[in-house]
Amino acid sequence: MKQICSLFVFIAACACSTYSPDEGVMQEVDRATETPMTFEAASGDSVTAFEGSFTVPENRANPQSRILTLRYVRFPATGDAAGPPIIYLAGGPGGSGIQTAKGRRFPLFMAMREFGDVIAFDQRGTGASNDLPNCVSSQYSPDDAELSDSAFLEMQKEAFKECLAFWKSEGVDVRGYNTLESVADLDALREALGAEAISLWGISYGSHLSLAALKDIDANIDRIVIASAEGLDQTIKLPARTDAYFKRLQDAINTQPAAKEMFSDIIGLMRHVHAQLEEEPLMLQIPQSDGSSSPYLFHRRDMQRIASAMISDPQSASMLIQLYGAIAAGMTDPVAGLVSRFHTPNEPISYSPMSVLMDVSSGTGAERRELIEEQARTSLLASFLNQPVELEDVDPSLVLGDEFRKAPVSDTPILVLSGTLDGRTYVESQHEAVSGLRNRQMITVVNAGHNLFMASPEVTEAIQRFMRGETLKKNEIIVELPDFSSIPGR
């Protein structure tokens, strides 16, 4: 049953116009929940906007559910023929739409105003809509001791079990944090905005949420723009697809003679370093802020986890292969310096609730899970690109069923942008995720990675043409590669 949102009262109402697709006319809507503000981007640019909020149940299946206040910033439309509100959905899961609008994508937020009010939305459990406590477990692995992958996995599962109990003790309904609840939040936001329909614009997990919305509220969606698409059955990535990404990365390196000479076989280099670390982990001295150092035994698993975090975009992947080269050459200072950026000595395992619960709830089908486990045995990064699929076993009742993971089928217009050097969501996987969307237009951004919205002005132009209802004549955009032979910091 759909929930009608009660509105959080702020100040006196200000009137604004919203498009009604059924009537084709502009109608006045009372926005009593909004407060005028000056929105300042990190660049120093500022614009008049409106802060808004609305309320939803934490768990719609629970009549006693506590009430969440979800917040957004609305940038008013500037175009003469503005359409439905355009809701930005951040990735992660766990990213903040409001904070994204303050960053490098601010110009794109402003450009999208030509087509309707643009809503920088903080999804439940994120940014200004987050009232959830992070959990620090009692589980940790001593920094200077060897630990098997299986023991490390058991620690993570035990930590998640502890955190589920902790969140419940804090009054959090952990069953309220899944993509279906977030889809219902989008429809509640539509109602709070007084709109007959909305458009969605998202990246990574934001695309996952958009695809789920096509299954539940398709009739209320005008059009969708997504990048770096994550299908409904693709929360846990196939390790073989990660291996294929490294082959594409090698092909890109081979276009640069100096880089090709330095890194003629990155897959061989990575396997060599992994074997070296498996045989003899490195004892590093990690510099601390007080001038002291702390011992850290650097495992093969640590290298695979670092690699998993650095392959989103070609710029960071370039740094990664330099790091592999340094370890192969016996240079430990670069890896010690990198570890010092994120590691606290003997730090316990901790979890951010929205991020882990959303991924666990989206889940993995039995057949795909078996395939993932089989591929992980021989793949370059094993299963470390993902949070462990085994977390789903801690409380299987949190995991949505196979019906949720079926790909959507829809005629809603959708634009899908994919980067060939995206190390998180892969081109071939993205095509599979949207195969049932009959009114799709696809653009491949050659040499771009996961964060591709600002990779080229041509990306913005393509989005603008799509939003105008045009059929795109070009399905490929080429952007410049980083210099893979350059050493970062020099």
Shape: globular
Instruction: Tell me the count of domains.
Output: 3
* Computed Rg: 23 Å
Major sheet attributes: 10 strands, mixed
Structural class: alpha/beta
Provide the CATH superfamily of the largest domain.
Alpha/Beta hydrolase fold, catalytic domain
| Secondary structure: helix percent | 25-40%
Strand content: 15-25%
Spatial strand arrangement across the major sheet: 3-4-5-7-6-9-10-14-15-16
How many helices does DSSP assign? 16
Q: The CATH topology of the largest domain, please?
A: Rossmann fold
Question: What do these coordinates show?
Answer:
- Helix 15 links the parallel strand 14 (414-419) and strand 15.
- The chain has three domains: 15-131 and 176-235 and 403-478, Alpha/Beta hydrolase fold, catalytic domain (Rossmann fold), CATH 3.40.50.1820; 135-171 and 349-399, no CATH class; 239-340, no CATH class.
- It has a ten-stranded mixed β-sheet, with helices on both faces. A two-stranded antiparallel sheet has the order 1-2.
- The termini are far apart.
- It has helices at residues 97-102, 106-112, 149-169, 179-193, 205-216, 239-253, 257-262, 266-279, 300-310, 314-328, 333-342, 353-362, 366-376, 402-405, 427-433, 457-467; strands at residues 15-20, 25-30, 35-40, 46-57, 67-75, 86-89, 118-121, 135-136, 198-203, 221-227, 282-287, 293-298, 350-351, 414-419, 440-446, 476-478.
- 44% of the residues are buried.
- The chain has 16 helices and 16 strands.
- Helix 4 packs across helix 5 (205-216), helix 8 (266-279) packs antiparallel against helix 9 (300-310) and helix 8 (266-279) crosses helix 10 (314-328).
- 36% of the residues lie in helices and 19% in strands.
- The chain has 490 residues and is of the alpha/beta class.
